[in-house]
Amino acid sequence: MTLIAQPQSMHFAEPLALRSGARLADYHLAYETYGTLNAERSNAVLVCHALNASHHVAGVYEGQERSEGWWDNMIGPGKPVDTDRFFVIGVNNLGSCFGSTGPMHTNPATGRPWGADFPVVTVEDWVDAQARLVSALGVDTLAAVMGGSLGGMQALSWTLQYPRRVRHAAVIASAPNLNAENIAFNEVARRAIVTDPDFHGGHFYGHGVLPRRGLRIARMIGHITYLSDDVMNAKFGRELRSAVGSDYRYSTQEVEFQIESYLRHQGDKFSEYFDANTYLLITRALDYFDPARLTGGNLTRALAAAAARFLIVSFSTDWRFSPARSREIVKALLENRREVSYAEIDAPHGHDAFLLDDPRYLSLVRAWFDRIASEPAA
Amino acid sequence: MTLIAQPQSMHFAEPLALRSGARLADYHLAYETYGTLNAERSNAVLVCHALNASHHVAGVYEGQERSEGWWDNMIGPGKPVDTDRFFVIGVNNLGSCFGSTGPMHTNPATGRPWGADFPVVTVEDWVDAQARLVSALGVDTLAAVMGGSLGGMQALSWTLQYPRRVRHAAVIASAPNLNAENIAFNEVARRAIVTDPDFHGGHFYGHGVLPRRGLRIARMIGHITYLSDDVMNAKFGRELRSAVGSDYRYSTQEVEFQIESYLRHQGDKFSEYFDANTYLLITRALDYFDPARLTGGNLTRALAAAAARFLIVSFSTDWRFSPARSREIVKALLENRREVSYAEIDAPHGHDAFLLDDPRYLSLVRAWFDRIASEPAA
């Protein structure tokens, strides 16, 4: 049975104070829900998105067969997160370019698009905004919050900011913070965007141009880091693009290897739909997330507030958010005597694995949600 | 005793046929030599450079105390490659921007700088050009050829192209070819340069501008891949640049973390002295190198021509040219019953380690050259 998704939007008139000290006077959040909230209002699951995803988590839009949500293999009727049993909420974050209030919308102070003046938003700010949406949907306590990568950071942050409002948290392919190398890759991507002459200091909307060159480079860098060395070698290796056989063309600018063609294509696609200011904001939210910053680097103390039961999942070839980083979270939670299930999935796909159809991974998540469904609501 | 280096240049009037099918009608090579060629002409060591280095391998220039050659810790009087015993030759490759014929020089066909029309040069072409220089210096057979990274590829190629002219080869932090991930990083760097509006299709010299934005991005990407995750975390971690303490500034464009400041500085410096067309040419030479391409991917057959004795060195945290890649070379040589010494140095510094002062590494190279010095010339 095909799940039909229906994008929605909610306006929040109450100002939102941000960690930066700025405040948003009001804002919209784009969201979708799947399944039905039960009478006890105890079966809600919030799904948090990563860098370039949105509130469109599952299902397809009416009449658009190929518009599957970004986690459609995970969420839906009969799927690991079964929408016949759970009421699933997908939400687009502030600062995004997919519907929620962001840099492309009007800055009430100027009457023009926010552009680069959109305030810096953090994982904690996003969670605050999400919590209001969850309340507005009639849910006090979430059965679970879940996310991968940056989405996992939000899930973790929920358990610290709203410990009594979340019973379970699934933190997948994530980390307690970015390391120097992660920040470095984000910074190169941001510099590519910011130094693109078409960026115009982040106010390109008024110039009729888009910093596509910068976005392409940013996406190419990102894409390399999402994949593992192994999967790139298996998929592309040193294969030439030329159909002519094994002869090199001897060119510095033309595509010679398949991997080049693939990356250029990914960059081109991305630059058509993604907003440059959003890219800056979201990578910065990644950089800034660091719950242990306020406990002198002690993650155990930082996670002491958490009361949820956890599922932590990592993937063996993920070098962007390596298993070692997930184990730091596990260790800190165990030192706080929290209930944690941890799985390190042996998968060749690198960071991208959290979005893919790995049977062991999907059945593990299924089993975890089955247990939640069978628990009496607290 | 300070070694004083003296840059020199040699003109070659005989045309050079390149692997691409193009030919250079004539060319110059910049080079330096250190030490004295013995009467038997048996003590010459050729040093091949990697991406951004040059013929200035060792010593300093007269009156310029801080002008040390890029491998000055390795090569000089009393050093592992002892110029009191060896006659060492440093050579700048064709297509470079440090003196040898390259894109900034005049294209005889047009009377203007070559720019992007400089022919694509390969590792094999470089070795052919180097071989002529070695002959012109009166050396028939090299005691050794050595290089790290791309320089190691040249050393390896010497043993295949001129097996009777090289008795020993040191191939350090190198690989038998680039894998898909390596090519991918090169490609992103090239795209950053080529799509910089100041690149002008590679003919920016006539426009009074330089594609600095692209070069900066290229260098930042390169720099991340030269370092290990460990050393970046040890050196920078999540340290903030701000002297104000642990408070974030909450900015997407200002420097927030030390690692960002470091990378921007590296990018800025590089963009001041490196030529954009050279960057394209040298990364392409890296991409194209693949001696096993002509033997159906069989490296053992590809290396059958080698007659030299080998030293292969890799570094444990080098993820650009990992130890596994060096072991492929070792295996192929052993299958050909060649004499190989292999060392995998446990060093935290990533790919950069081959340029650094690791005592075990330096004494290993010293011992290897000591043995060469004590051998009777063949």
UniProtKB/TrEMBL annotation, chains A, B:
Pathway assigned to this chain's UniProt record: Amino-acid biosynthesis; L-methionine biosynthesis via de novo pathway; O-succinyl-L-homoserine from L-homoserine: step 1/1
Main localization of the protein described in the UniProt heading: cytoplasm
Name of the encoding gene: metXS
Cited Pfam families: Abhydrolase_1
Entry protein name: Homoserine O-succinyltransferase
Keyword Transferase set for record: yes
Subunit architecture: Homodimer.
Binding-site residues, substrate: R219, D352
GO CC, one annotated term: cytoplasm
